[in-house]
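Below is how a single chain appears once it has passed through the pipeline. First comes the sequence as given, then the structure the pipeline wrote out for it. We keep one example in the README because the format questions we get most often are answered faster by looking than by reading.
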Amino acid sequence: MSMTMLTILQIAQALSAYTLVTLILPGIMLHKHLAEYKMSERLIGYFLAGNFYIIYLVFLLQFLHISHPITLQIGAIFPAFFIIWKKRKSLHIISKVSNFFQMTIHILRKEIGLKTLISKGWKKFNRKYSRGIKQWLKRYLPDILLTAAIITGVFYVYGINTATVYGYKASDIPVHNLWVNEMDNNNIFANGVYPHGFHCIIYYLHAAFGIQTYILFRVFSIVQTLFIHLVLLLSLRVICRVRFSPYIGTAAYLMLNIYNDNAIARYSSTLPQEYGMLFIFPAGVLAIRFFQEYALFQKEIKECNETLKKQKKQKILGYLVGFAISFSLTLTVHFYNTMPAGVLCLGIAVGFCSRFCRWRYFWRIIVTGLLSIVLAVVPMAVGVAMGHPLQGSLYWALGVMSGEDDEEEETAQSETIITDKNGNEIRVVGDVDEALLEKLKNGEALSDEEASNSEQQESVESESLSETPVQHQDQTNNLKRVSLFTKLQEKGKLILTEIWVYCTKSSQTVARIIVGGIFSLLILGLLAMMLRKTDYGGMILSIAFYMLFMCLMQSLTALGLPELMQPSRMCIFFCYSLGLVWALNVDALIYLVFGWFKRNWVMNGTSGVVLVAASVISVLMGLIRTPVTTGALEPNESIICLTNIIRENKPFNWTILSANDERQMIVNSGRHYEMITFLRQLMNLEKNSEITFPTEYVYFFIEKQPINYAGSANGIDLQPVSEEGANTPVNTGGGISAYISDTRWKTMSHMYYWAQAFKKLYPNEMEIYYETDDFVCYKLHQNVECLYNLAIDYGYNNPQEQEEK
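Resulting structure:
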């Protein structure tokens, strides 16, 4: 079987396992409890409940130090047993079990054939479910087909790269791999307290389903990317009024080739930030639904009987519970996701400000928000109470929230003192160009544009030492005489530039369309409010204000404000949110124009036409995205060898000597030794006269054409391994310095020529296990009772010392 086919099967395995525990099992257990909600809301509810339960189940078992595949599996199905036991009388469990055993006995005695059994079962299924399935298909067939198209699009754009590039594609994945590996030993927070929700999910899939951790980190990226797009689709289905507009927004985000590569490149890697994106929009749409449903309940409360009141209160409570779970999961997985989620909540508060400011809405939302934060903080608080320090990146987050970064930034501003021609001393704080300083010295009046720039870049404080203070006062007034419109215009240009640079493929036209789409939502929301469509208008305004705030978040650095998130990362969330913009613009236009028709087929038909037209135009204009291509941090050949070595050998009967990326991949299967550690030992054979590995097999991974690790070569074309590279000193720097830039070429050259020299000494024992033009893996077979000494002089052990001799 080829590695590509094996990877596809591994993707299917990971997707099936994740779907089972986060969607199917919760759906089975909660379908009656969520029956009053519409389909899209139920699916979001199942998904949130599944993720929340699995994450906190793992937390609980880890804290109790009893996390094990058996306890994890029992924990996952325990709610099902609980529900069955609670409803044991109504479900007639005893009679069903009795019938099952009787049928089993008949089969074992061969009194009933397999064909008869299948035929009876099919007829029974047909009688019970065929009519309902036909009605369901008739109702949802267009949605099923379009959802299948979205799924196909995700696999086309992102899946091809996952199936053909086998290695890790981000340099921090080995760290996350280490943390999950430590959870095998019930050692959660191994590197300090950190949001571990993502790691809990990966660990659960590994432990409960027996999928190796390194395989999950290789292939789970496409699973989470698929669900990121499906969650966007479901969220739009919750808030949109027109049937096909959600598919327009999701397809526009998925397929249009207009977004900056940085906004989508991380989808190729299995990372916690991207996983946390699954919970941003569900929090927002459930909060919107709370405002809408609670307002409806307040209008109908007098007409409802007690039973109906109770049902409606439970439904409203369900929205709040879903909001709390979803928002808490953003922080439980990665605190970066909490920022856009918080901005979305702020936009909703502004969009529904007339309701949010009322006490009965206000206290419910605030209490729910506080509860969600408590839910996320509790596992980390327990970790701290158990004696774990905070992980390094959390100190930065606390510093930002405490304002320490702001203070440092303020004290770091430069100050310039000049004297004008009249002897006035002027103190200028900030960076100012030379031309502006000359004008200040000469006492010249500034133009509006220059005055605007001076207002943005410095504050001027003057101390009069002249006999003519009136002239100096006029000059100061000129500096401050800037219209509000000019200021806003300049700020708007800065924001537009940031969107253009970070969120588009350097297209000013696309940047203007994006900003135009946001302001179009604002206008449509106001129009809906004027037409007394308050619920709908509030929703549109909420998303419009959210996107305006996101524009500010994208441009904080350019506007001179504290940077809460790097623009290169913020653009990921910004572009993801554009799916809402495209969909809601179409939805609002169609709904406001055709919403007065009694039958929905006019709106739905129009949206279908728009979907088809937009697809055709995008294809004709060449706007369709091609499959994403990203390189890995190790060659495909190393993953092929690693997979075969694990399959062929007994656990811990072998050692791999390679660069650092394989170390965490094989921690539960075999031994690993660092290539650079080995080469540094060879530098001094007097001190390290004997180097051995205590396993029967030793594999050496060597790149004949070294890869450009994480783009660290910065445009340098790395050469193939050569004597020139081996003749350079062995790297003695810290961290991964031996494996980046052109140093990787030097390291691999040393290793290659050592392998050549050792193979000359032991040609029968040192054989080529796998080789291509760019990679070679040597295999050493040895007797564990009489190990080979690998400490040999290969001619380049310490080139500098050898030259001196």
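The CA atoms of residues 225 and 267 lie 6 Å apart.

See the next section for the split statistics.
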